[in-house]
Amino acid sequence: MTDDMFIESRPSIVFLGDSLTEDGRWAEWFPDRETQNLGVGGNTTDDVVARLDDVVALQPEVVVLLVGTNDLSTRKSVEHVVRNIEYVLVTLRRALPGARMLLQSIMPRGREFAARIQDANRHLRQFAPSVNVQYLDLWPTLALEDGELDPALSDDRLHLNDAGYERWLGELRPGLERLDDAPPMSRPITIIRNQG
């Protein structure tokens, strides 16, 4: 393999999540990468757990995950959301030991959800390093001081408009560059859980 071939070879990326991911124009925004959009509108963390075999079958080099907001609108507990996302990360790490993974914080929406979203994000930020997953905090760039999704970025306090996607990409692009620079994974991570 020549140096030129190595430079041009970019990881295949799976974008996994709900409608926020589904509505992304990933192939257009990352034309130098092979992308797969596995965002499904309305998906909860339970739905993503049920689709993990589809992710593994693609054998991606990079997985970018964003999910959780739909759970909170269906009155699932913060604990449920966090436990499911942790399960997703552990399962993917075991099945794709060489993959780089980027977990994005649950995005802000209406301010009435802010405390629960921030609680879930605190747990996820702490957990991600234990399975060698990088964490991307989108809250500072998308939320107002009271936790409301910046109304300039959304027409319905949940889904992003074009300005919202541009703001997201402003964080995601450098996040993926940092992920590319990270050392590759080479072996599964064993998670030790306390029994009892």
TrEMBL record:
Chain ranges passing through the membrane: none
InterPro entries: Ester_Hydrolysis_Enzymes, SGNH_hydro, SGNH_hydro_sf
Gene3D superfamilies named among the record's database cross-references: SGNH hydrolase
Residues annotated as domain SGNH hydrolase-type esterase: 15-167
MF term (GO), any: phosphatidylcholine lysophospholipase activity
Family annotation (Pfam families): Lipase_GDSL_2
Name this protein carries in UniProt: Lysophospholipase L1
